[in-house]
Design brief:
The structure holds two protein chains of two kinds. By secondary structure, chain A is mainly alpha-helical. Helices cover 90% and strands 0% of the residues of chain A. Chain A contains two helices and no strands. Chain A has helices spanning 2-29, 35-66. The longest helix of chain A is centred in the last third of the chain and has 32 residues, at 35-66. Chain A starts with a helix and ends with a helix. Chain B contains 19 helices and no strands. Chain B has helices spanning 2-15, 31-41, 46-56, 61-90, 94-137, 152-171, 173-202, 211-219, 233-242, 254-257, 270-290, 297-305, 307-332, 341-356, 360-363, 365-393, 399-403, 409-424, 433-453. The longest helix of chain B is centred in the N-terminal third of the chain and has 44 residues, at 94-137. Chain B starts with a helix and ends with a helix. The chains are: A mainly alpha, B mainly alpha. The interface between A and B is medium-sized, with 21 and 22 residues.
Chain lengths: 67, 454
């Protein structure tokens, strides 16, 4: 149960990271944020994607193993 | 000699033993898996180079759009009507099917040729990654038209990346492949976000009102960069079609489609061609225009998304070079079957790293992709003829397998003969494979039919 929650949560956060990468590029294009802010947020959102996607994969692997 | 080849062939069979049997019905995969596989596989580091080169070759925006739409559609249809039906009917990899048709000797030659071609391709990936790392150290990257290494610093960076990729491939292909699968969606996002972010630099207004005009005048303006050949609709159309020629018409994706429930699963390749190739090539076109039409993938990605872009180019190079090095190692193992996998992967990696130092492979990537597909294409035509035409013409199938031939000389003659004709054809390199495919198909069928009459 806990593993499933972790899997879903990390999956959702990973997707949010990926969506943020796209969103921040659009905001920069629209002139809402500066180039420096855009590139920093893009980097952080990218890191979030990798961290949470790896967590999700690990949680999915463990929950499959325990079944 | 014959005994030596037979022994090497037996050792080679052992390497591929795990996929000798046709895929069992219970192991067939869902369509979603094919969609994900294609979507992930067709966004690589080389997309930065290919899309950029379309701009440098002076293609116009409409020719590019039309060429990519038709060319990618033809590629999808090639997977669907040529590769997938044979894979679903046989449930075998090309290796085992070709062995029945051409004999283990020809299969071994095919494998070795494939290994060298893979090494060059992986070398191009490493070179692309080197452009990103060079940016960090302020090292100048080779300019258009340069064929030899440009300096000790470029060689040092390229070799360091090559060694790193090789060590990672040696340490564990399986686990790294799983990580690479995670990277694919992000790499795709980098292409899309990067293209969006460079639009203001190109003068596109936030309301997108002048997007088409900017595309036509500042990106795909129809003017080729000095020293680059002018491309038209036919060049782009054929390039998009033959970009994966070895996989669809050349049938090496039988290894994938043997797990498909139906041959129509070939249509899932559209997930690799349209959101993958087409979008990524368009995106890299915007990026190369934003850096003043300089073929520098590292700089293109850095200008578009910052430090994450540099990481993306290295990662995209690695995620593609990793399986390529693995496949090259597997294919090269046919020469020295007693060597362990790590050793042969290390040798393939060393060869690849040296090749990567020569910028010609990534600066002439479009031509190399054409040559790569062209070299392997006749084998696909031979298999197609044996599978579909022989039963219709009542020519005995799989004679090499049934009669225990080491070499089906007819296959070898048709393969080399087709290549000789193709290289002599007075048409552009990109257009040679299509007549070549029909020549190979006709010649192999005619020669095997003549043998039957004798």
């Amino acid at each position: 149960m806990k593993r499933r929650l972790l899997k879903n949560l990390s999956g959702g956060l990973a997707l949010a990271g990926l969506a943020s990468c796209l969103a921040v590029a659009i905001f920069y294009f629209l002139g809402c944020i500066s180039e420096g802010a855009y590139k920093t947020i893009f980097l952080l959102a990218s890191a979030a994607w990798f961290v949470f996607a790896i967590l999700r994969t690990a949680a999915a692997g463990k929950s499959e193993g325990s079944q | 000699m014959r005994e030596k080849i037979a022994r090497a062939a037996r050792a080679m069979d052992k390497l591929y033993e795990f996929d000798r049997e046709p895929v069992a019905i219970g192991k067939l995969q869902s369509g979603g898996k094919f969609a994900a596989l294609f979507a992930g596989e067709h966004v690589a580091a080389t997309e930065f180079v290919i899309g950029g080169f379309f701009v440098l070759h002076g293609i116009t925006a409409w020719d590019l759009l039309l060429g990519l739409l038709i060319g990618n559609l033809l590629a999808v249809l090639s997977w669907t009507f040529i590769c997938a039906p044979i894979a679903v009917r046989t449930r075998l990899t090309l290796y085992w099917y070709l062995r029945k048709i051409a004999g283990p000797g020809v299969t071994m030659i095919y494998n070795i040729a494939n290994a060298f071609l893979y090494c060059i391709l992986a070398g191009a990936m490493i070179s692309v990654s080197s452009t990103a790392v060079s940016l960090l150290f302020g090292i100048s990257v080779p300019g258009l038209g340069q064929m030899l290494p440009t300096g000790a610093d470029w060689v040092a960076v390229t070799l360091a990346i090559g060694v790193t990729f090789t060590v990672l491939a040696v340490l564990g292909f399986e686990k790294l492949s799983r990580f690479a699968a995670l990277a694919s969606p992000w790499i795709f996002v980098v292409f899309v976000a990067g293209a969006v972010a460079v639009l203001p630099k190109l003068g596109v207004r936030p309301d997108l009102g002048n997007l088409l005009e900017v595309s036509r005048t500042a990106v795909w303006n129809g003017v080729a960069v000095s020293g680059q050949e002018k491309f038209g609709l036919a060049h782009v159309l054929f390039f998009a079609w033959f970009c994966n020629l070895a996989m669809h018409v050349g049938l090496s994706d039988m290894a994938v489609f043997r797990y498909a429930k139906r041959w129509t699963y070939g249509l899932y390749s559209a997930f690799g061609m349209f959101p993958g190739h087409m979008l990524a090539w368009l995106a890299s076109g915007f990026m190369v225009a934003a850096v003043g039409r300089e073929m520098h993938p590292g700089l293109m990605a850095y200008e578009a998304v910052g430090a994450a872009g540099v990481f993306c180019v290295v990662l995209a190079g690695w995620t593609t070079a990793n399986p390529t090095l693995y496949r090259a190692g597997l294919a090269l193992q046919t020469i020295s079957p007693d060597w362990p996998r790590w050793k042969i992967t290390a040798v393939a990696g060393a060869l690849t790293s040296v090749l990567a130092c020569f910028p010609v492979f990534f600066l002439k990537l479009l031509d190399y992709v054409a040559v790569y597909g062209l070299i392997l294409m006749p084998v696909g035509a031979v298999v197609f003829a044996e599978h579909w035409l022989f039963p219709l013409l009542k020519i005995e199938q799989y004679q090499a397998g049934k009669k225990g031939w080491i070499f089906n000389w007819t296959v070898l003659v048709v393969w080399l003969g087709t290549l000789a004709i193709c290289f002599a054809l007075p048409v552009h390199l990109y257009f040679r494979w299509l007549p070549g495919w029909f020549i190979a198909l006709g010649a192999y069928t005619a020669l095997m039919a003549a043998r039957r009459r004798r």
